[in-house]
Amino acid sequence: MASEYYRVADLETRVESLLHSVALVVAAFVFGTLVFLSAASVLRAAGFEVETMASLPPLLYTALTATQFLGFFAVIAFYVRFHRGGDLFAIEVPSLRSLLWIAGGFVGLFAVAAILSAVFRYVGVDTAVNQVTRQIEQYPVLAFYMIPVTFLFVAPAEELLYRGLVQGLFRRAYGSVPAVLFASLLFGAPHYFALLGPGDTKLPSIVLITVLGLVLGALYELTENLAVPILVHACWNSFSFLSQYLEAAML
Length: 251
Known about the structure:
Blueprint: H1 11-45, H2 58-82, H3 96-122, E1 129-130, H4 131-138, H5 142-174, H6 176-188, E2 195-196, H7 199-223, H8 227-250
Antiparallel strand pairs: 1-2
Helix pairs in contact: 1-2, 1-5, 2-5, 3-7, 3-8, 4-8, 5-6, 5-8, 6-7, 7-8
Keywords: Hydrolase, Membrane, Transmembrane, Transmembrane helix
EC number: 3.4.-.-
Transmembrane segments: 20-47, 59-80, 100-124, 136-155, 175-196, 203-220
């Protein structure tokens, strides 16, 4: 029996949800990469060595990192404008109740990450390292520059794309539970290209990211306010950056 949790829509809606979701993710990364490369070429023309981003001043490094997410915003805005994508999600200023969900969601992410990390250590599975993490290891002060970037660019762009549009498309076709699952899978998979290390270390990291996506997706379904997963995502990334700073500073 169909419900808000699980349904099977008509074939056209199901096909559209899959094709549009994959196309949105691919387009966001392609256009984001083009914007990034364009910005890098400008810096290169100005005499900066962008081939080794570690040589860039922290402010330029974070600005260049943010340009990719300008591409995300452009794709999201296009879809919202021409495909009524704004009907797929809701966002508003967080209420007191939403703030409680944000605090609980952050604790939930921390607990899930801690449990999975402990499981990976117990079974002897290594995990890959994010490119930004490696940069912070070399230049700890970069962590403080990345915090405003994650609040203004990374978290809003990724949550609008995955929890807003992709999850909204799948919800319309299959209901909220499958939507959270499918959107989280599409959220985790592309992170393969942002991870450093052998292939066998990337899969556990992608599993962890996908599970964290499940938490963010569930938060949105429970609150019906995209601002909640955006802020939880941003706080989680910021916490990670600060943890990496403290670890690198103590070495």
